[in-house]
Design goal:
Elements (H helix, E strand, L loop, with lengths): L1 E9 L3 H12 L4 E4 L15 H14 L2 H5 L3 H7 L5 E4 L1 E6 L15 E5 L8 E4 L1 H14 L3 E3 L2 E9 L2 E8 L2 E12 L6 H5 L13 E8 L4 H4 L14 E5 L3 E7 L5 E7 L1 H5 L7 H11 L1 H6 L4 E2 L4 E3 L4 E2 L4 E2 L2 E3 L1 H4 E2 L7 H19 L8 H28 L3 H24 L21 H13 L8 H15 L15 E2 L3 H6 L8 H11 L14 H18 L2
């Protein structure tokens, strides 16, 4: 079977499916190819405010109401209760020590909570990816995307006019001719293999992953009744357990399931018997940390525990003539700060706008646009790597780690508020995680250098004076963008979403106090819901009609 399309997208996770749907809405002929079959298991589940902002912009621009509804926990529950999800009010961190229960020392506990929302209704979510990815595939099919699952691709031949793909579907051979190809297939993906794209120089971060989904996990706060209240219930978050071997995540879903995994440094992995099975390694790690072991004492795996020896990858290319990669196919660092979904959605926005710009003439993104896209992904991958590598160095002592985390939270809180008070298409092409920001861009790399001088790259905790100096440097470095009151010793590492602090620091946003106060309803999530369908889709439908007419005229004899 041979067929043709304008855009072929390989990989039907949420990013590939959403991009396919958007391109179909604006008038492109799209084929979405998937090696497996939905619903299927996937990890990479935790959203952030920046991810939700991307969803809201996509919803408003392309008249996709479900994207708006999935952008907060409250709207999700009201409009799509059939899709499983978890409540995420913020980021919770604990520092555990091997062989010891977690030290409950009141406000002096090794505990950090940073709120991302003021209430449950406006909170972020953990995505049960089997449900969410399948939803986006169904919605893509509903707008005309040609979805083909069980498709195994074996060849890709590029020329000046596009690409010819070859493979099999359910055992039957097929060929597909496309003007442009998007690789959304993930690590070690389709284009990397068939084009033999070399790796970029190694990442600073190095970690292995041991993970699973479980039932019967007890809330960690049940294990720690003596801790003072934080800005939200500790378990209603992405919970991070900082360990001697690396760290562990625990994400609770509303149906009672929990996604959990250990990210192990090379040293941490070396402490486990090489021949041990993933389930045995899991049990060994739990046994080292009594408080975590108590939480998982009655836990049952929903599927086999899995081990991935190296989660990092980065390629030397992200685009070429007639092709582009989504971020997760190009590079991945580590899930420590939940950057994956937000970064992927930003790329969906960028590529969608690139195809919009090309809709009336060339029908494929320009070489200049693709070069900009590649430069952005490269810079952003390096930024994430420096930040996370610094966090791994900082795990040597909780004071260092809490200070390092402030770099992330200052960067994303400033970006979030900036995008809310000045919404527009420019946000899609703004640098992710501080890239391009004169006050923030240099900080992750500088912080990593400073931390390695303290730790010696060997996990040394440094002196009290060295830790105090590093903490002071972070507070000073983030000050030009610190609209959230971070790095404040009086908070004892418990940071609510404080609008009073934001108003007081209005000048950091280039606004007067009165201007910012006028924006508070939007910042509190009190803006009226956009209108979807009927009249709101008129301009969009006109764009799609013009796009299809242009395509028809271009191919008319």
């Amino acid at each position: 079977m041979t067929s043709e399309c304008e855009v072929a997208i390989v990989g039907s996770g949420f990013a590939g499916s959403l991009l396919a749907r958007i391109l179909a809405v604006i008038g492109y002929d799209v084929v979405l190819l998937e090696r497996g079959r939905h619903p299927r298991f996937a990890i990479g589940e935790s959203t952030t405010p920046l991810a939700n902002l991307s969803l809201e912009r996509i919803a408003a621009r392309y008249d996709l109401a479900d994207c708006h509804h999935l952008a907060t926990h409250g709207r999700w529950l009201a409009r799509h209760p059939e899709l499983r999800r978890g409540l995420k009010r913020g980021f919770t961190f604990y520092r555990h020590h091997r062989g010891e229960p977690f030290g409950e020392r009141g406000l002096q506990s090794e505990r950090l909570l940073v709120a991302a929302s003021p209430e449950d209704a406006l909170a972020d979510t953990h995505w049960l990816r089997a449900d969410v990815d399948h939803h986006f595939v169904r919605e893509a099919v509903a707008v005309g995307v040609d979805y083909r699952d069980c498709a195994e691709l074996t060849s890709a031949e590029f020329d000046d006019d596009g690409v010819r793909l070859g493979g099999t579907r359910d055992g039957a051979p097929f060929q597909l001719r496309a003007n442009f190809l998007v690789d959304a297939s993930g690590p070690n993906g389709f284009l990397r293999r068939l084009l033999a794209i070399p790796d970029a120089p190694g990442t600073e971060t190095r970690s292995s992953l041991l993970f699973g989904h479980f039932t019967g996990v007890r809330p960690i706060c049940d294990m720690l009744p003596g801790l003072p209240p934080g800005p939200y219930p500790d378990d209603s978050a992405a919970v991070h357990h900082i360990l001697d071997e690396g760290w562990m995540y625990s994400l609770r879903f509303d149906d009672g399931a929990t996604s959990a995994g250990f990210l192990l440094t090379p040293h941490g992995r070396a402490t486990l018997p090489h021949a041990a099975s993933p389930a045995e390694q899991w049990r060994m790690l739990l046994d080292r940390y009594p408080t975590i072991a108590s939480a998982f004492a009655d836990a049952t795996p929903i599927r086999p525990i899995t081990f991935v020896a190296n989660v990092q990858h980065r390629l030397s290319r992200a685009t070429g003539s007639r092709w582009a990669m989504m971020p997760h196919a190009f590079a991945f660092v580590d899930p420590l700060f939940s950057t994956g979904i937000a970064w992927s959605l930003r790329a969906v926005e960028r590529l969608a706008l690139a195809f919009e710009d090309a809709a009336a003439d060339a029908r494929v993104p320009s070489a200049e646009t693709l070069a900009s896209y590649e430069r952005m992904l490269g810079a952003e991958a390096g930024q994430i790597d420096s930040l996370v590598a610094g966090a791994y160095e900082a795990m040597a002592h909780f004071d260092l780690f809490a200070a390092q985390a402030m770099l992330y939270f200052a960067t994303v809180s400033f970006a979030e508020v900036s995008q809310r008070v000045a919404p527009g298409d420019g946000a899609a092409w703004s640098g992710f995680l501080g890239v391009g920001d004169t006050a923030l861009a240099r900080l992750p790399a500088e912080s990593l250098r400073r931390l390695r001088r303290i730790t010696g790259g060997r996990g040394e905790s440094g002196s009290v004076e060295q830790r105090r100096e590093f903490t002071g440097w972070v507070a000073s470095a983030i000050a030009p963008r610190n609209i959230a009151g971070l790095a404040d010793p009086a908070r004892h590492n418990l940071y609510p979403l404080d609008l009073d602090v934001l108003v007081d620091r209005h000048a950091l946003l280039g606004m007067s106090r009165e201007q910012l106060i006028e924006m508070l309803p939007a910042l509190r999530g009190m803006s009226p819901e956009p209108r979807f369908g009927a009249s709101s889709g008129d301009a969009l439908r006109a764009l799609g009609t013009a796009s299809r007419v242009a395509r028809s005229e271009a191919t008319r004899p």
